[in-house]
# Entry
Amino acid sequence: MIRAYKFLMRPTVRQGQALGEMLRDHCSLYNAALQERRDAYRHPSKTSVTYGMQSAQLKDIRGFDPERQGRWSFSSQQATLRRLDKAFAAFFRRVRAGQKAGYPRFRGVGRFDTVDFPKDGDGCRWDSTPHDPVTRVRFQGVGHVRVHQHRPVKGRVKTVSVKREGKRWYAIVTAEQAEVEPLPATGRVVGIDMGIACFLADSDGGFVDNPRHGAKAAAKLEAAQQALSRCKRGGKRRRKAVAKVAALHRKVRRQRLDHAHKITLDLVRGHDFIAHEDLKIRNMSKAPAPKPDPEQPGSFLPNGAAAKAGLNRSIADAGWGVFLAILNAKAECAGRDVMAVEPHNTSRTCPECGHVAKENRPTQQTFHCQACGHTAHADTVAALNILRAGLARREAQPA
# Structure
């Protein structure tokens, strides 16, 4: 099993400058390789340029420009070219599937924030000074950079990546673990129902409030974006305004991640089996289709787009996708079982008699069975039905 760790680096001023130059030169290599592919395709011969062809040119490129390209790791430059190759592979896959293609674009220096080292010991070395109580990672052309290692890395280190977020630098380490250490069994199972009004309701009757981090920061973000729109391009004030907007977005993202980590940790530690809805988040957050007016060609009828836009913002702010991804990762590391079930009619089915009807849920929070009169919170009822469906699916699966 592969696990990823993210650690804050504390480079010196010179090391920070060297890391910035490394990103700049890898960005230049990425853009040059993209330009070569574009020119080859526009040529009358329609020549295709592959990763192997561009990787074979690296030796000559490093010899021609030793000051900018020759000082960095050969493997990291290959990883940058492979990154471009993956972008083109994804582009052609979307074209064949009939989706919005999204041709690979040139990257500005401010939008190229990651350099990958595909093998520990080749251009980089994790914990390069084991005799030193302070953890350090060594990068070719940069030196030994201090790392704030807040937890131990278990397993054999496979890859190391450098990432810039604002004014901070991070080292992302992936390690391979031979065996998973499962947590002790608790004998408990739970079903969870996710929503907007209440972030999470479980089958035991518990509730987790929706923190709405994005909505709370909306006023500050609006003011910062308005200030950014008033700045002239290329000025120092605009760079500061851009940094402020990015910092606010990063704070919201970190708050959302922190909330997801805490909730999932409690679920994984306290239950052997967790069932949740198989949510199609992308479909749920789609904009409504326009409604042409048959009586007035060129005009459209109201389709509730404004209300749907507000719902889409709430769905994105809740962060269901991030929550489920973290839940599955933690459950895998702890040896727990997680099951996704079909969410259809989970909040309209009576857990006592099994009666299914739209009228069983008269309001957002109330469940009242029209057949047997059972009354409960609608989200708790949904969580109970999700748990039962998950247990039934687990028993039906072959051993």
The chain has two domains: 2-176, 189-396. The longest helix spans residues 236-270.
